[in-house]
Every structure is written in structure tokens, then in C-alpha cells.
TrEMBL record:
Gene3D superfamilies in the record: NAD(P)-binding Rossmann-like Domain
Organism: Coffea arabica
InterPro entries: dTDP_dehydrorham_reduct, NAD(P)-bd_dom_sf
Listed name of the protein: Bifunctional dTDP-4-dehydrorhamnose 3,5-epimerase/dTDP-4-dehydrorhamnose reductase-like
Gene this protein is translated from: LOC140021343
Amino acid sequence: MSSKRCFSLGIGFKEEDKPNFTGSFYSKIKAMIEELLKEYDNVCTLRVQMPISSDLNNPRNFITKIAKYDKVVNIPNSMTVLDELLPISIEMAKRNCKGIWNFTNPGVISHNEILEMYRDYIDPKFKWTNFTLEEQAKVIVAPRSNNEMDASKLKKEFCHGAS
């Protein structure tokens, strides 16, 4: 991580916190697998949150997903910017890092902030509409997890000398 992104951050869900969102089948399985993998001392588990990449053609890219939605909720979340963090995963393997890691960039960004950047840099004519969590709940199959993850463990390991 570059020093400009490495700043003091100690808020949100920590690696020691048990997953507390089981609103979807995916989330339940993810939590169960994480609990099982904790028993092995040679495993490194990366907690990825809303992955973003520069490949806007990838349907799994968070930006690509929300840009296609008719309506979005405007909620701040931790995000994993893959172009920045994937090189760190290679270094983690070289350092033999183990255990659970919140594999997100520091801080949070709202869905509207992401879409504003999409409009400003990609499509100046792009528009979106917001709706509430209650309105969203009526049209989605499973609830969504929105949270801030504490990135201080990753910062401590990879941002030496950053304040």
C-alpha cells in the first residue's frame, strides 16, 4: 500500500470478530467455512468486500454491478480495490501470512460516491436513482451486508512508517 493510503484506522469489524451476517446462503456458507479454516494454522483467509477492479467488463466488478441497477441504496461500505490489493496478496504468500485478514482498503465509500466517479470518469450522461433499505428489501432475494472492516492489521503489516 502506498503511504498516502496508509493512515491510522482502527474502526469497524476486526479479524477477531465472528461473521455476524447470515442473511443469505452465500453469507452463511462463507461464515461456516471461515470458522472451519480457523482450525488450521497454515491457512490465510482474505475477507474481500465488494471487489472493484479496473476491468469494467467483468460482471463481478462492484462498479459494473451497481451501474446496471435501476436503483441503489446509498450506504458507505468497505471495498476491496483488487488492482491495489492483489499484489499485496502475493507478498502475503511470500511472508507466509496466516489467519484471517480483512482484505479491504482503509475507510469506507458510499455507493453514490462510486457512481459519481463512474459518471465523472466513464459516462458523463450516467444517472441513477436511490432508494431506501426498506424499498430495496422488497425487490432483492436475500438481504445485503453493509459494513466497515478494520484494515489496521493489513496496514500494520504492509505500511511500515506510515502514520
